[in-house]
Amino acid sequence: MKKQTKGILAFAFLGGLMLTSGVLIAIPGFDEEVDYAAMNDPEVTITGTPADNFPDDQRTTFCSSGGDAKSTKYVTEYLIPTECTNPLAITSDYDGNAWFVETNTGNLAKFDPLTETFTEYDNPTWPNGGRSMMWGIDYAPDGSVWFTDETYDSIWKFSTIDEKYERLSYPTSGGDSLPQRLTIEGSQIIINDFTGNKLTILDVNPTEDDVNYLSIPSAIDDSVTADFALDANDDIWYTNWLFQQGGFLVKFNQNDYRNDVSDSGEQFLPLIDYISAYALPVQLLTPNGITFSDDGLLWIADTTSSSFFSFEPSTEKFIQYVTAEPMFETYGNQTGIIKSPISRPYWIENDNQGGLVFNEQTANNISVMNPKTQSLVEYHVPSKNPNWGDCNSGTEVLDNCGIAQVFDFAVSGDKIWFTEWVENKIGVVDTSVSLPLNIQFEYDVLNITSNDSATFHFIINSEFENDVLDLSSVISTTHDFLTVELIHDSVETFELNSDNPVAIHVKISASDDALPGTYKILLGAESSDITIGKFLTVIIE
């Protein structure tokens, strides 16, 4: 092992001076033989029937509610042949195959969309009965698949050529650690440590036994280091937050750091000189997924609300966006305890076509936002597990109610692959399928003052002849002081056909305590399979 060195990073967050350390060291490379006996179970074998890991009273909750794969015009599901695998992280290779991890088996699996066949690769060192949440995965140019392993603080490499697993111990400091999202950038592997208060950059050199890494410690004690994204300059942005207390958006200028390290001849330099931090707005409490759009805006998904946010780095301005309210079929509300259903956007990614893709955990959606047109399409996943919604009154279960726990997705051209953690399925959204309707605004920006209101109308047009759609109107706003209500002859449910476009009239009001600023209202329509909306910009002066 190479000499270990430490540097001191000191900067102020939350009004206080925080001391943290940056590390650039070498750690042992890959282990083909891992002694899991000391880590988990005295018996180390190839995992048997994974359903045996759950008692009978938990099998429908975690293994599947028993439904077959389902399809809509936009979404196709595939049932994994092995029971109860709990699929989570998913990616795609250059041939369009989907690769995903099975958290209840420790295995990696491949789905070939041309033959519609699954191949599951046994991990011979995985402990019998072992489970681990595996949140991050990526496909490398050399044909290897890398993924994270929460339970055993590990990073795994699977060679698709020789079909062998190798394990890399994740660098920890002795406390809690949860290696989560993983992205391959050249020879670097970037990983956030969700509970371990750091962002780690691994430099994997296949010709050496050691793996160099740089850890960027978080400045807030006992905080979460969540998702990350690279901008056009290769600066790394990530979020750092405390549960229900907010936090910071952090930027690390890695190119300047590495160039200065090289020029100085030092192994490290103080990280404070290469880090910038921006306080998150008070509405953004759980900033998990982040990504950049083609126009240079940073987008952040908030998992404790129905919102996602844009951030303009040059002006340091945040703008809040909102999803449609989840359909009743996802949350159920048999007991009536859910007063404000939320969609929970989780991860968010650029689709390389100018759009943004994110999953809505409790709305059971895969969604696509177009920043240029300010439009949002939410594709409804057809499978639902009633054990994860308020679907049971004690005497009966609501029909087709619940969520499939769509925790991850991967963009591959016009396809979006996703996993269903509690339904033992993967699925794909085909974004090339034509949408059934379009929404036409009379104008895109509305200016009002506090304690004032204005009327607005939009037109919903059918895109197909001889097609009748049963629709519901969609009206969503981000703040209580900005309300929207249907007026005139507008109704919540209606039929749409090609001969008769539907005009929706609304009244938009700002209360007397409304704060000046720029806000977004989502207006549109939804069917049982899809929600289509467009954002109206409201400026309160």
Write up this protein.
The chain starts with 5 loop residues before the first strand and ends with a strand. A hairpin with a 4-residue loop joins β25 (356-360) and β26. The protein is 4% helix and 46% strand. The chain is built from three helices and 39 strands. With 541 residues, the protein is mostly beta strands.
Shape annotation: globular
Mean pLDDT: 88
Instruction: Assign the CATH class of the largest domain.
Output: Mainly Beta
Low-confidence stretches: 1-27, 36-49
Examine the coordinates and then state which fold CATH places here, giving the name of the CATH topology of the largest domain: Methylamine Dehydrogenase, Chain H
Taking Cα atoms only, what radius of gyration do you get, to the nearest Å? 24 Å
For the sheet with most strands, the description reads: 9 strands, mixed
| Strand residue content | over 45%
Distance between the termini: 61 Å
Structural class, judged by helices and strands? mainly beta
Helix content: under 10%
Count, helices: 3
How many extended strands? 39
Query: Could you state the CATH homologous superfamily of the largest domain?
Result: YVTN repeat-like/Quinoprotein amine dehydrogenase
Secondary-structure arrangement, i.e. CATH architecture of the largest domain: 7 Propeller
Structural domain tally: 2
Quick tags:
single chain; 541 residues; mainly beta; Methylamine Dehydrogenase, Chain H; Immunoglobulin-like; 2 domains; 6-stranded antiparallel sheet; disordered N terminus
